[in-house]
Amino acid sequence: MMLGWLRFNRRKADLDAELETHLRMAIADRVARGESEPAARAAAARGLGNIAISKDVTRETWGWLFLERFGQDLRYALRQMRRSPGFATTVIGTLALGIGAAAAMFTVVDHVLLQPVSYRDPSRLVLIQESDGKSPQGSPAPWLDVEQWIRQSRSFQQIAFSSGLGGRNYLEGKTTFLEISGQSVSPDFFDTLGVQPRLGRSFIPETPGYAASRNAGLIVLSDAVWKEAFASDKNILGRVVHINNNPYTVAGVMPPGFRYPANAANLSPQVWVGMQLGDRDKGRDWNSDHYMVIARLRPGVRLATAAAEMATIQKRVAAQYTDPDQRSQASVATVKPYADTLVDADIRKALLALLAAAGVLWLIASVNVTNLLLARSTARQREIAMRGALGASRWRVVQQMMVEGLVLSGCAAVLGAGFAFASVRLLNRELTRHLPLPAPATPDAWILVALLGLTVVSALMSTAWPALIAVRAPIEPALKQGGLQTGAGRRHHRMRGALVSVEIAMSLTLLVACGLLLRTIWSLRHVPLGYRTDHILVANLDIPTFRFAGRNMTQALYEPLIERAQHLPGVQSAGLMSVVPLGGTFTIHLQMQMNGYAILSFMKAVSPDVHRVFGFKMAAGRYFDAEDTATSQPVVVVNEAFARLYSPDKHDPAAIIGQKLLNMRPKTPTRIVGILDDARQRSVAEESMPEVEVSIPQITPDSNFYNALEGIAMDLAVRTERPTSGMIPELRDILRQASPELAHANVITMDQIVEDSYGSQRLAAHLLEIFGFSALLLCVAGLYGLLAYVVTQRTREMGLRIALGAGRGNLLWLVMRQAGVMLLIGVAVGSGLAFASSRLLRGFLYGVQAHDGWTLALASVLLFLSGMLAAYLPARRASRVDPMEALRAE
Amino acid sequence: MIKRSTDGYRNRIELLQGTLDMLVLQTLQWGEQHGYAISQALRTRSGDVLQVETGSLYPALHRMERHKWIAAEWRMTEQNQRARFYRITSEGRRQLARDRSSWDAMVAAIGSILEA
User: Fold this and answer.
1) Which one, A172, A382, A523, A542, has the greatest CB density within 10 A?
2) Model ipTM?
3) How far is CA A10 from the centre of its chain?
4) Same domain, yes or no: A540 and A570
């Protein structure tokens, strides 16, 4: 290539010399024939014709000319950019912004919603669950039901099932204990997912049943566990490893990245153990094990077909339940694509809405740039005409304009790619907080390439098109009349006005969405939570149960921990709670019978002092106190929601005090002694659900629920008078003293927990703020650009009007009116768009209607005023035209 | 090939596509020539009817050079001027023979139509 180019340059010099020789010979000939020297020179030059064209045409035969022209055009384009840096910056910045935002959102959505799992042919994997047919949430099924599904269904190639190991699980590694999360899985589990171990083998194929399984005691490790606990030891196969002191033989190691359940990115590294069905699988009640069921559709079987088949089967299955409550809980079997179940519906909606917003921003950016380039090319009609007059061919001019477009969009593409990387990284940090899936860290290459390609093509088109029109226009009038309007010019204006209106409409849509979310966040922040959140530090403890096997954790772990925490300097009070409000780390659901009610409630273990940390208020009765001990009367406290639903006297919730609930200790009925005010438990937007609280000092290893209440998770909350950040090291110290594993606990302020609980709304609001503001900026810039151009084009007309007696105010009004019309059209169309699109947002608005008039009005006014402001500058310029100068200039 | 008809050249005969190549090759049959001499030779031999423009001649020369029908080198003329001399190659001779035979065939065909 380089060599060719050098040769090209040498030949160019050759050609110049050759033509020079030709000219000299022709002159010499003529002089020899008796012509005078100057006459001969002129005649010879005429005979030679247009030398530049001769050279061009000749060079074209060498095949290198395009490169030379490209180089010229490139230099010219760069010169143009230097001459109007404002224009270049606007175009490049606008495009880069659009590309960056769109590439980032497309990447995230593609990764999270379209291809979140790495199993073979994941679109055929479905989750089968039981439900009461009303709540959207399904639940796992007991073995007896799964067995029926396997026997009776025809839609599935395989049906595999699994259940979590439960509790805290610590695997004894070479040097340390590693906390793991495990699933006990059916034999064809890995076949169903279509992934085989990288090392060793998966479980032995067999029909699941009560007989002793050959897979019992076998374990398959994830790559992460293999690396962390066994330093990637290739000889691990066949070795015995211990989880909570139970022995397992290693059968295989899965490939890196394999994960099941897939939405457990935030959890500990995983293992899978062979399943042994047992006595607990012989019934269908609360005591039996329940399984997550994942099945692979037969090739060609549609989801709807499978769902219909399962509906028929489940009718027969449900009929076999004896308990009417449980029968209703299992009356329907739902079949959902596995990938769809991984992301919460509201996160999914948030992502889609943000995707749409990013797409709209990209559109606005493209439209804006098209408009700017159109304006510029049209303004350069005179220049183009001049080049035509000097002999440039049409194609040559168009080519040159296209190179300019290419340079601009090329710069934008590079910058946009940079933006995309930055924003994906930004999103990644936000997303990993809200998503159970690993979020992408870099933009998807294909998406980036596609977007860049589209941008470059659109920029090329918007530069080439006006150039094409310009070169087709007759040269003479353009040269003669300079900036005067032609018919094509007016058509351009109308089109460009329409483009600006489209931009305004789309911007309004984004602004309205942004406004709605800001109001949602505002509403959420003003919901009375029912407790204090300031000056509280929370540590999320994963309880290392194996260290306390055979001991009473109340005495061995919790009471000393509170004692130490309360004596830290600056601590006013300290308490324990299974999970702090809005914590979302761990939930215990209580299902039981009381006074003929089927009770469904949250359950928490708390220490008596915790109400002093959070300032919970009592509606009636009392909270736990120091008198409630392991030997005294067992008591519980419920919340108002619980009392309202389950009180024996419908009209007096307080009548529930003194009622018997649970059997905390065998044969000793537990009594309700108090009712807590309602408070926000799981989300700020959610009304209170029934809740039962149990006092930790009253819990002993022989209590019911001992393992659930004390053996899984606990939050330590302290109220301090010092800045919370200074407390953290001391808090970790006392945690380490309690048990070494706890030193790594996550420590977070309560205020942050509340902030994080806004989750998807906050993420969406932040991004929409950025998108909305960018859109506003872009469309103001677009409007300004158009009007400034129009005013420049009409300088002479303006001067004429003034000379004929038009007032300056009239001229100001003339331009402002034009802007006003575009803005009004844009706002009108945009209102419609916003009205239609805000339905998409409905799912995660709070305290504001999707069709909120005030938000729409405010956004419209904001847009209109910014637009008029942008129009004012060119309008003022128009009104200050000096008539003499304007007319003389022509 | 000879194109860009501007008003000054009304009397000129438009050469058929490819004909210029044949004429140039034929001219080079008689010996090496530089561009100016080729244009002069074409003009005088046609009795001033054919005026080959530089805008056609040099592209044609360079194209034929690319096809290796002719070869070029810089040498001094008798007037001691540096000029680029073109020489026909054996490939060029074959090309000329091909052009000649198809030209003859065409002339014969056109002639028989006109005389019929």
Assistant:
1) A542
2) 0.78
3) 57
4) yes
Answer whether residue A163 shows pLDDT above 80: yes
Among A385-399, A412-426, A652-666, A833-847, the range scoring the smallest mean pLDDT is: A385-399
Identity of the residue in A22, A49, A57 whose CB atom sits nearest the CB atom of B59: A57
Residue A332 sits in the same domain as residue A361: no
Residue A405 lies in a domain: yes
Q: How many angstroms separate the CA atoms of A317 and A128, rounded? A: 14
Q: Which residues of B touch A25 (CB under 8 A)?
A: 34, 36-37, 81, 83
Name residue B85's beta-bridge partners: B34, B73
- Asked whether residue A680 falls in the same domain as residue A801, the answer is no
Q: Cα–Cα distance between A88 and A214 in angstroms, integer?
A: 71
| CA separation for the pair A413, A415 (Å, rounded) | 5
Mutant choice from B2, B3, B58 vs A, greatest count of A C-beta within 10 A = B58
DSSP-assigned letters across all residues of A9-41: HHHHHHHHHHHHHHHHHHHHHHHHTT--HHHHH
Cβ contacts from A onto B, under 8 A? 64
% of chain A beyond a pLDDT of 70: 90
Beta carbons within 8 Å of A430's beta carbon, 6+ residues apart? A763, A766
- d(CA A17, nearest CA chain B) in Å: 8
Cross-chain CB nearest to A25 (options B36, B55, B74)? B36
Q: In this structure, are A561 and A414 located in the same domain?
A: no
Query: A94 and A47, same structural domain?
Result: no
Do both A433 and A470 map to the same domain? Answer: yes
Q: From CA A592, how far away is CA A597, in angstroms rounded?
A: 8
Residue A733 counted as domain residue: no
- A487 within domain boundaries: no
Q: Which domain holds residue A142?
A: 122-341
Higher pLDDT, A635 or A793: A635
Which of the four pLDDT bands, split at 50, 70 and 90, describes residue A143?
very high
Q: pLDDT tens digit string along A740-774?
A: 878 778 888 998 888 888 876 777 787 788 888 88
Q: Are residues A306 and A171 in the same domain?
A: yes
Interface of A with B in 849-878 (CB under 8 A): none
Residue A295: phi and psi, rounded to 5, are: -130, 155
| Same domain, yes or no: A401 and A321 | no
* Residues 6+ away with beta carbon under 8 Å from A577: A604, A605, A606, A607, A610, A714, A715, A717
The domain tally of chain A equals 5
Q: How close A71 gets to chain B, by Cα (Å)?
A: 22
Looking at the domain B18-115, which fold is it?
Arc Repressor Mutant, subunit A (1.10.10)
Write out the DSSP string of A832-848.
HHHHHHHHHHGGG--SS
Q: How high is the mean pLDDT of chain A?
A: 82
Q: Do A54 and B40 touch (CB under 8 A)?
A: no
* Structure tokens belonging to residue A846: 């709070």
